[in-house]
Amino acid sequence: MASLVLMHTSLLFLSTLFICVHLSDQFQPFQYNALKQIQQFLNYPSVLTIFDSTWDFCNVEPSPFLTIVCYEDNVTQLHITGNNGVFPPSLPQNFSIDALFSSISSLSNLKVLSLVSLGLWGPLPATIGKLSSMEILNLSSNYIDGFIPLELSYLNNLQTLVLDHNKFTGQIPQWVSSFNDLAVLSLKNNSIFGSLPSSISSSENLRVLAIADNHLFGEIPGLQNLTNLQILDLKNNYFGPNFPVLHHKVVTVDIRNNSFKSSVPNELNSYFQLEKLDISINGLIGPFPPSLFSLPSINYIDISGNKLTGKLFQNMSCNAHLVFINLSSNLLTGELPACLQEKVEEGAVSYDGNCLSGEEGNQKPLSFCHNEALAVEVSPQKLRHKERKAMAVLVSSLVGGIVGLAVIVGLSLWVFQRRNRRAAMKGPSTRLITEKLSTVNTVKLLSDARYISETMKMGANLPTYRAFALEELKEATNNFSHPSIVGEPSLIQIYRGKLGDGTAIVIRSIKMRKKHSPTMFTQHIGMISRLRHNHLVSCIGHCFECCPDDSTVGIVYFVFESLPNGTLRSSICGGGETLNWAQRITAGIGVAKGIQFLHTGIMPGVFSNHLKITDVLLDPNFHVKICTYNLPLLAHQNAGFMV
């Protein structure tokens, strides 16, 4: 009897084993083929080739390059990272992102997909919508472009979406809020434009909202109902003018380098979990609440580059865990608190550009801060009253203007025709040529949304690029007099000057070896006008000096913004104001961002910039800007170079 029971037990065990082996054979070859195809499409990682001899891919040892996680013989997690994220692997010449995601979509039980630093390029395929079990999607540090596809909204279980450091364009779709469990939305460093959708206010489970380094603008929807939001990263956009409304549980607020112009809300004093606050490089006005120094969790505060007012006192209290405080370039008065003075020697505190008494460094007179504070304290009611009054004046002016419009038009046509007849005898003027070329450039720029978005983001703080009349430049340089010359390379002369509105400029005059018509320069002028970035010395206009006989261009003038604080080298090696360690780190990051923009921010990129430390200048706030691009100007015709 015992032997019979043992035999039945053995048969049952063998039957179970057969069933398990059968199911494994049914499931695993299908997934094995998908993984092999992924390896072939990427030509990476090589560890996947071991599946030629074994199908036990669920037990592959995790590495920094590849991690596969299985549950009940199904692949549920796939992590592939290129060379520790430093350099992407070399994709095959016939790489197809559509074919890659077609293979990935066959892993229907996939919950986590991470493809980082692999050099993937092309629009994100619609097949991504087939991964209905997906909870975490990370495609950061690639070259994926195009709009964020609608098919992503089919992933109803999505909790984390990370698309950082790609080339996505278009707007943030309204359907982002349709993910009930979405906790992390990170779209940093793309080319996304437009406003933040109002639907984001209903994403109650959102913990991280990181959309820095894009081309976004407009008001921030009310986020006070997002009680789980911990990290808000909006830096390097155009949001504003009103300060975001947040829940008091937020941990990190980074709105650096935007267009916020309102006052700092008093509610910040109740953000007891706040650890990092960066509101620098905006236009914020009104009193700065010094009680922020003593918030129980705070360790990082940067309010530099605003117009914040207020008086500081030595006996103010500070959180002992503060590691970085930057109060520079505001309108603060009084004395630096003693609790911050202890950290000055550590390089953790910056406070230049205020009106603090008894402090070394670049402090302005007390009257400056008072006068500036009065200048910005214009109430909204007065502004609205002025707007209504201006509107009334405008309406009355229009009524009067319409009556004489016909007469003015007739006289203008008569004068214009007479002037044209004279111009035909004397040859076309420089102003008419440059204005015509500027119009052509504008039409060309408007035809390319990528260039528009780059120009909007990178050139917002600069004057509008335009064509200058030669007379303007002569007036700015006292007729290009010798004292205004600051450099004289072989074919290029460099002048310093000042426009009629007081703007300091640098003019680079290039004598052309060959004569060309103005239309020959259209493409090159278009390229130069798009080189606008926070870390590039930007060109703000051009002018042609034409030959009187044939109207061809003999000299090209490029007008650049002027930076008064010398080179980065002089501020590091002596000769100028010495930068502290934090400023040097910031300078290095700024140079890297400027180079990145030259390489990837415009199409085609500019790669011929043999950068030297003397080619990096400092603006009034000691932010670095690259002044040399080595952009060829009609180089293929030996016409010269723009330096």
From TrEMBL:
PROSITE patterns: PROTEIN_KINASE_DOM (PS50011). Keywords: Glycoprotein, Leucine-rich repeat, Membrane, Repeat, Signal, Transmembrane, Transmembrane helix. The chain crosses the membrane at residues 390-416. This is Protein kinase domain-containing protein. It holds the Pfam family LRR_8. It comes from Gossypium arboreum. Residues 480-643 form the Protein kinase domain. Residues 1-26 form the signal peptide. Gene3D superfamilies: Phosphorylase Kinase, domain 1, Ribonuclease Inhibitor, Transferase(Phosphotransferase) domain 1. InterPro entries: Kinase-like_dom_sf, Leu-rich_rpt, LRR_dom_sf, Prot_kinase_dom, Ser-Thr/Tyr_kinase_cat_dom. It is found in: Membrane.
